[in-house]
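Sequence and fold:
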Amino acid sequence: MTGRKEYEMSDSYKQALKHLLERIETRDWIAEKIKTASPSRRPNLVKQLAELDRSIDKFEQALAEEYELTQRKGRLEEEYEAQMEELDKTCDAILEDMKEKAPELYQKIMADLGEDE
């Protein structure tokens, strides 16, 4: 990663991540049990392991997508705020310049905006 700011994830995301980690622990436990399982139990455990792997893969993909969307949203919101601050500064500078160079126009604009000066 290139030193990007990381934005806070929602509580539901954190809970889902916790659930994913629990599923991974269960998968690892089943994988260990397969090694010592009786030949009659192995096929069922292998099937459970495969199903759990598919479920984990889907879950990981969904969480990765949510993470990326949240991070992108955070960056866009931050960029928007910075642009709005810059716009406010620019407008203030224009109005100050207008106040000095075209006071009549400035007063008319302020009156139209409903602001007393």
